[in-house]
Amino acid sequence: MWGGRFAEGPSAIMREINASIPFDKALWRQDIAASKAHVAMLGSQGIVSAEDAQAIADGLDQVAAEYEANGVPENWDLEDIHMVTESRLAELIGAPAGRLHTGRSRNDQVATDFRLWVRDAIDQVDAGLADLQRALVGRAGEHAASIMPGFTHLQTAQPVTLGHHLMAYYEMIRRDRSRFADARTRMNESPLGSAALAGTGFPLDRDATAAALGFDRPTANSLDAVSDRDFALDYLQAAAQCALHLSRLAEELILWASQPFGFVRLPDALSTGSSIMPQKKNPDAAELVRGHAGRIVGCLTALMVTMKGLPLAYSKDMQDDKPPVFEAHGLLALSIAAMTGMVSGSDFRTDRMRQAAELGYATATDLADWLVREADVPFREAHHITGAAVKLAEARGVALDALTLAELQAIDQRIDQRVFAALSVDASVAARASYGGTAPVRVREQIADAKIVLDME
Ligand code: ARG
Domain Fumarate lyase N-terminal: where (predicted)? Predict the structure, then answer.
């Protein structure tokens, strides 16, 4: 493609280090779509003849049909998907193929193709995340009043509902979707027509190609357009953040599935056994989601470091932009699907959860709050009194509400019989009815709002 200027061909090492076709063949659909938009515009602007434009468009359809049927041939000599496609087009239609690249460079071509690919990836992730949210909301609806211990420092803190806990992940995913949507809006400008770096002298209609490819507008600066990979970084940043959320949920399911917790039985279909220990059912899918988060963060780091010192405009380093994005996307899509399966298929052991909440002095705050509310005790003093009650219950090996009234009154005179109504886990949860709180009435409101957003029911 550039042989005119060279006395000898590339060495084997040059061919190998230069070839991006092994991975950028994933862009073939976007490359054909962008070429078709470009040549249609060249035709309507009179830059190439109507017959040649038609021959090129038909030829591109034929190349696409071949790729669809047989895959993309990996010819390293042709370097990348752009040259592989153009050379096949030349084989098929002959001379007119040479006019396709008028007013275009692989620099604006790859920037355009890759944006289209990332845009599709975002749409795919968003659909997967919506499914995950539906699974979370569905399970939360079943468990709006199921009691479990809420933790801080992984120590039993206050009772919450499982529905409330699951809806916390709904919120995280809601923010993830908004980050992806934001990235999509920002990246939706067409680099096509920026050419190598400086723009072109041909009378291209950049608005027409932008519109044909579903972009909102053409990019405003050709130097920026061919050297910008913010769209890929935006995708990876949103992906990394999302992967962190999935990893936290995976970690909780792993912990909950352990025998000492026993809060959940994970679906067999997303677990594995042990080749030596017959009793084992391992949460491998959840562990891999937790592991994949590390790799996705690594992909983000890789592209950030690739881009950080590059002068304008295009440098070949930027060919390394695709593998981390492709890798991260594959890992993320699979992680989302795995978590959706685990959320919808898990058997939550609400009896064990309730028992754990009852055993951990989770309602100690309710005793202190009761003293403040009913006996006008200052909170700091109430905290101290409650601490003494917990100490006594612990020494006796019983729950807080199993202490006798006499024992409680020995700690503080102002306690009376009514306190017992406040010390049950159900009363504790029902009392936390502040906006966003764990009371079933509030959780059901959160779920109802989410169902409207997600078009459920
Ligand atoms: N294979 C290249 C890439 O993926 C295409 C752009 C090549 N441009 C160039 N000036 N060598 O980045």
Answer: 4-298
